Amino acid sequence: MSLQAKLDAFKADFEAGKPPYNVPDSVIQVMHRATAELVAAGAAEKVLKAGDKAPAFILNDPEGNPVVSAELLAKGPLVISFYRGVWCPYCNMELQALEAALPSFRELGANLIAISPQTAVNSRKSVRQNHLDFPILSDPHNDVAAAFGLRFVLPDYLVDLYTNLKNDLPSFNGDDSWTLPMPGRFVIGQDGVILYAEVNPDYTRRPEPEDMLPALRKATYASAD
C-alpha cells in the first residue's frame, strides 16, 4: 500500500470519529478551516524550489551531537523531511515510509535526515517508536524551517483547539511561539542546489518516497561526471 493510501485510510477513520481518537466533527471542521486558510494564503508559494540554493545549517541530533549540512553534502546528496512531531500520526506514517525507502536512498549514495521543532527527548521517542535508522534533528523555533520557507504561526483558534486536546506544542517543542513547519520534502545535490522540493499546506497529503529517486539518480550521475 502506498504512503498516501495509508494516510487516506487513517484520515477516513479519524474523521469518522472512530477509536482510539473519537474526535467530534466540530474538531474536524476547525482543522479543515486552518488547512484551507493556509492554502488560501499561498503559503506553499514561499517555499524554496528546485534550482534554489539550500540554506546551510548546524542542528543537533537526538543525542546532542551537532550535524553539519555541509559535512553531509560532502558525502553525497541529502534527503530532508521536515517533521511536525511525535504527536502527529500522519508525520509518523511518513517517517516509517521513508525508513522503508532508506536502502534505495543509500544505494544512490544519499543521506536521509528529518528536521523537527520538537525537543531531543521527543525525537528520541520518535526514532524509537518508528524504528528509524536515520536521525531527527532538533530545529529550535523552526529557524531552519523558516529559512526553507516552511514555518507558519498557528491561528489563535487552532491554538485553543490544540490546548483543549492536550496537544501542548510549547511542551513538545520547548518553545512557546506556537509555530510549525509545513511538511516538506527536499533533495539537495552536493553543490547545495535543491533538486527536488515538495510541500503541501494540507498535512494529510504527502509525496511517495519513490518520487525522489529520479532527483537522487540525477545527483548521483552529476557527482560521477
TrEMBL record:
Keywords in alphabetical order: Antioxidant, Disulfide bond, Oxidoreductase, Peroxidase, Redox-active center
Recorded catalytic activity of this chain's protein: a hydroperoxide + [thioredoxin]-dithiol = an alcohol + [thioredoxin]-disulfide + H2O
EC number: 1.11.1.24
Gene Ontology annotations of biological process type: cell redox homeostasis; cellular response to oxidative stress
Family, similarity comment: Belongs to the peroxiredoxin family. BCP/PrxQ subfamily.
Described purpose of this protein according to its UniProt entry: Thiol-specific peroxidase that catalyzes the reduction of hydrogen peroxide and organic hydroperoxides to water and alcohols, respectively. Plays a role in cell protection against oxidative stress by detoxifying peroxides and as sensor of hydrogen peroxide-mediated signaling events.
Protein name as annotated: thioredoxin-dependent peroxiredoxin
Species whose genome carries this gene: Gluconobacter aidae
Organism classification: Bacteria, Pseudomonadati, Pseudomonadota, Alphaproteobacteria, Acetobacterales
